[in-house]
């Protein structure tokens, strides 16, 4: 079923610029309704994102952009993972007026992100949906962002918390410095769990909390080398699982299989 909602060319030159691959998708000026999604029998997409990295978070019938005179209205079509404009989730079936410069996320986590913008006069990377399909394998390899599932992130956070708790319990540190350092660590962990806050801030807070513990406590008088190695290993392992989902190239499920064998 093809999109028959066509109008005469408006002369507007707008595009969706895909952030993860630095690729532009022209918005067809002769359509009143531009569907965004993946191939399906009911409503084939005018902008096909199936070949982009992390396309699994995008529904087949995900969203549409309706052109009303010179206005562009975006609408979520009941997608599984939602549509976000400038980090605000759209209610399904409710249109939102797009402005040049708006950021559109298909699904959570900023994994499929577009910028609604004017097309450059001579766009160097302007590609149609058909062209992006042809070069998709190279784009996926070069620009694929790391997506870590929630279970792996939870395991990573648990290991980080365990390392902090063990260190806190075994370092002789005064309450004046001890309580703030622990609070900093757990605030950092809280920040890591938030999608809309820069996670680098979380790591900085955790590092600051640990630094306070080390430089204000009698660490070498009360903690043996084995315990230091244990807590460091726990923290490093948790960090790898949370940020990459893998430990030296193996995810936790692969490690389970190796251990069971």
The end-to-end span amounts to 51 Å
Major sheet attributes? 7 strands, mixed
Task: Report the top-level CATH class of the largest domain.
Answer: Mainly Beta
Q: Which percent band covers the strand fraction?
A: 15-25%
Helix content bin: 40-55%
- CATH-defined topology of the largest domain: Tumour Suppressor Smad4
Please tell me what the overall shape is: elongated
The overall average pLDDT, rounded, is 75
Uncertain segments of ≥5 residues (pLDDT<50)?
4-11, 122-136, 138-145, 173-177, 218-222
Structural class comes to: alpha+beta
What's the architecture of the largest domain in CATH terms?
Sandwich
Radius of gyration, in angstroms, nearest whole number? 24 Å
Q: Strand-and-helix sequence, N→C?
A: EEEEEEEEEEEEHHHHHHH
Count of separate structural domains:
2
Count the strands?
12
Provide an overview of this structure.
- The chain has 261 residues and is an alpha+beta fold.
- It has 2 domains: 14-143, Tumour Suppressor Smad4, CATH 2.60.200; 150-260.
- The chain is built from 7 helices and 12 strands.
- The strands form 2 sheets. A 7-stranded mixed β-sheet has the order 8-7-10-11-1-2-12. The protein has a 5-stranded mixed β-sheet with strand order 4-3-5-6-9, with no helix packed on it.
- A hairpin with a 4-residue loop joins β1 and β2.
- The radius of gyration is 24 Å and the shape is elongated.
């Amino acid at each position: 079923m093809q999109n028959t909602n066509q109008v005469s060319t408006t002369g507007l030159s707008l595009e969706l610029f895909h952030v993860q691959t630095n690729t532009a998708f022209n918005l067809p000026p002769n359509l009143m309704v531009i569907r965004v999604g993946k191939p399906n029998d009911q409503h084939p997409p005018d902008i096909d994102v199936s070949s982009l990295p992390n396309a699994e978070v995008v529904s087949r019938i995900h969203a549409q952009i309706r052109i009303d005179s010179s206005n562009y209205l975006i609408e979520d079509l009941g997608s599984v993972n939602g549509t976000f404009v400038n980090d605000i989730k759209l209610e399904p079936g409710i249109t939102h007026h797009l402005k040049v410069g708006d950021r559109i996320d298909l699904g959570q986590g900023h994994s499929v992100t577009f910028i609604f913008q004017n097309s450059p006069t001579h766009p160097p990377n302007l590609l149609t949906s058909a062209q992006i399909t042809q070069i998709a394998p190279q784009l996926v390899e070069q620009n694929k962002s790391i997506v870590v599932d929630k279970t792996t992130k939870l395991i990573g956070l648990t290991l980080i918390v365990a390392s902090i708790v063990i260190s806190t319990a075994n370092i002789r540190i005064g309450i004046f410095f001890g309580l703030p350092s622990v609070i900093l660590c757990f605030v950092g962990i809280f920040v890591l769990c938030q999608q809309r806050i820069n996670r680098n801030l979380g790591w900085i807070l955790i590092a600051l909390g640990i630094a306070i513990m080390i430089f204000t406590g009698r660490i070498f008088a009360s903690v043996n080398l084995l315990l230091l190695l244990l807590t460091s290993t726990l923290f490093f392992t948790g960090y790898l699982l949370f940020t990459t989902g893998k430990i030296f190239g193996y995810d936790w499920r692969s490690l389970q299989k190796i251990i069971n064998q």
